[in-house]
Specification:
- By secondary structure, the protein is an alpha/beta fold.
- The protein is globular.
- Strand 5 and strand 6 (about 95-105) form a beta hairpin.
- It is about 25% helix and about 45% strand.
- The chain has four helices and eight strands.
Length: about 170
C-alpha cells in the first residue's frame, strides 16, 4: 500500500450567472514522502490550477494500493477489492483487501478499469465502489521523467545524476 496525502484547499469561487462569491473546499491527492512535502507540492501545483488565492486547510494521510488515472477524466472512485492467495509457508488461504483509487466516467467504468488493471489476479472481486471527493491526483514524478528510477528511492536526484541522465538521453 502506498501512503499518499489528501490536501484540502479552501478558496472563493465566483458563482455562475452572478457577482457573488462562494467559498469552496476541494480535495486533491498528492504522492509525497511526508506532510511537509505534501504541503509544498499543494502550494506549487494548486497555484497552477486555482486562479484565486487559496489556503491549504487540511492534510491527511491515506493508503491506496494503486491509483489508476484516466486520460478521459471523470470522477475518482474508491474501489475496494479483495482476493485470496495461499501462504506458501503455512499453506493457508489468506484474504487480502485493498482500496484502489480509479478515475472513471461512472461506476461501471470504474469497475471495468480496476478489473483490467488487476489482470490475471486469481480469485479477485470488487467488494464496494464509492465516489471519492478527490478532484485531481498529482503523482510524485511523471512516468516519462528522465530520472524515473528515483521514484523508487524517493530521494531527489543530485545535479551530477541529472547531468548524466541528460547526457544519456542526448545520445
Amino acid at each position: 500500500m502506498k501512503i499518499m496525502f489528501e490536501c484540502t484547499a479552501r478558496y472563493s469561487k465566483p458563482v455562475e450567472g452572478s457577482d457573488a462569491q462562494k467559498r469552496v473546499n476541494e480535495v486533491y491527492l498528492f504522492d509525497a514522502i511526508n506532510y511537509t512535502e505534501a504541503e509544498k507540492l499543494a502550494h506549487e501545483k494548486l497555484a497552477e490550477v486555482i486562479s484565486a488565492d487559496f489556503l491549504v486547510t487540511g492534510i491527511r494521510k491515506v493508503r491506496y494500493a494503486e491509483v489508476i488515472p484516466s486520460e478521459e477524466g471523470g470522477y475518482w472512485y474508491k474501489v475496494k477489492t479483495s482476493f485470496i492467495y495461499v501462504d506458501e509457508e503455512s499453506g493457508k488461504e489468506k484474504r487480502v483487501t485493498q482500496t484502489i483509487l480509479t478515475e472513471a466516467m461512472d461506476i461501471k467504468d470504474a469497475i471495468d478499469r480496476t478489473t483490467e488493471a488487476m489482470g490475471d489476479t486469481p480469485d479477485f472481486m470488487v467488494k464496494a465502489v464509492n465516489e471519492s471527493n478527490v478532484l485531481d491526483f498529482f503523482p510524485y514524478m511523471e512516468k516519462d521523467d528522465e530520472v524515473a528510477d528515483k521514484v523508487l528511492s524517493r530521494r531527489p536526484a543530485t545535479e551530477e545524476e541529472l547531468r548524466a541522465a541528460q547526457a544519456n538521453s542526448a545520445q
